[in-house]
Amino acid sequence: xxxxxxxxxxxxxxxxxxxxxxxxxxxxxxxxxxxxxxxxxxxxxxxxxxxxxxxxxxxxxxxxxxxxxxxxxxxxxxxxxxxxxxxxxxxxxxxxxxxxxxxxxxxxxxxxxxxxxxxxxxxxxxxxxxxxxxxxxxxxxxxxxxxxxxxxxxxxxxxxxxxxxxxxxxxxxxxxxxxxxxxxxxxxxxxxxxxxxxxxxxxxxxxxxxxxxxxxxxxxxxxxxxxxxxxxxxxxxxxxxxxxxxxxxxxxxxxxxxxxxxxxxxxxxxxxxxxxxxxxxxxxxxxxxxx
Length: 291
What we know:
This protein has helices at 2-9, 12-17, 22-28, 37-48, 68-85, 105-121, 136-149, 164-171, 196-215, 229-241, 259-267, 283-290; strands spanning 53-58, 90-94, 126-128, 153-158, 177-181, 221-225, 250-254, 271-278. It is an alpha/beta fold. An 8-stranded parallel beta barrel has the order 1-2-3-4-5-6-7-8, surrounded by 7 helices. Helix 6 (105-121) links the parallel strand 2 and strand 3. It is globular and about 50 Å long.
């Protein structure tokens, strides 16, 4: 089923037709509160009352023209201002291909630099999302350059990729902010673990490595992007064994997935963040979520 959903996510014919069907639009509402930022922020305000902070991302990737990147960056600047104006404890997550990485790395950096600078002015934070494997190296280079200029930027790493352990070692001297996820793209066996047990084991090993770096005096910000509560609790046990607290990492889950567990973990003293997506370009993202 996972392979089928991942195939569907990249099928152009289905991408053009399925989103028009009423049952598909109804089904997506479980994971998507709406198609505009205002609706996403309203949803985030509800979670904030339960002590859960928001992370907001506009769906869509791989622009048709580089000129579109400026409009995307301007949109996120508006979201940062709206989060601040509403008094929400929220951050944004941006796909680098949304701001031009397919076309011009320099202009992509300029857009990301502008977002990070504005977020810093507002006391906020931006995350650079990770896309499929061919974009890992350009995204890491973008992040390394941003991190040299801004303390308030983070990056997503995928536990399914064989290279991620080396990538983590490469980034640790920067005291990075890392959102560790399992990975949602269809990747070949040569570069990615295929079985969920292997991915889980690598996720746990990478998380423990981040915790050990924190224990050793480094200051990485650690986000565990998983809905596997058993895995979260296993990693929390490693944190306790190292003398660390639940507040030394955060759990990041998607809107619409295990909301009951998000609230339970928040009540039990975990720092919990909910990733709230919005926008019209939801088809491929939704299929990857189902996968």
